[in-house]
């Protein structure tokens, strides 16, 4: 159902470097960049995460209650992705670990613009 998710950035060049390095750590590359927008994913026919400067020219803001979840293949990959995120200057919003009673495992963080994301492995 989801084709792509776009989050805003106020420093496009810094965000490009951040996400290029972050996604490279799990073998995902940038699929495209056009003007003020870029996207990362495994293929163009699967969901991607994109960043963009707001089209209206106003300041990008992080949504309160908005979060993008990035599916990983293992708990070790969640741990490594979370660590990479922090090493690149992102902030911790919850250390990797089990959540709930059904085996869900996730780590939470915010990017350079304050957007909240998580890396997880479903139960």
Description:
This protein is 21% helix and 38% strand. It contains two helices and eight strands, in the order βαββββαβββ. The protein has helices at residues 12-24, 75-87, and strands at residues 4-8, 29-34, 37-41, 48-52, 68-71, 91-99, 104-110, 116-121. A four-stranded mixed sheet has the order 1-4-3-2, covered by helices on one side. A four-stranded mixed sheet has the order 5-8-7-6, covered by helices on one side. Strand 7 (104-110) and strand 8 (116-121) form a beta hairpin. The model has no long low-confidence stretch (mean pLDDT 95). With 123 residues, the protein is an alpha/beta fold.
Topology at a glance:
Elements: E1 4-8, H1 12-24, E2 29-34, E3 37-41, E4 48-52, E5 68-71, H2 75-87, E6 91-99, E7 104-110, E8 116-121
Parallel strand pairs: 1-4, 5-8
Antiparallel strand pairs: 2-3, 3-4, 6-7, 7-8
Strand content of the residues, in percent? 35-45%
Biggest β-sheet strands, sense, barrel: 4 strands, mixed
Task: Tell me, rounded to a whole number, the average pLDDT.
Answer: 95
Which series of helices and strands comes N to C?
A: EHEEEEHEEE
Order of strands across the main sheet: 1-4-3-2
Shape: globular
Query: What is the CA-CA span between the terminal residues?
Result: 21 Å
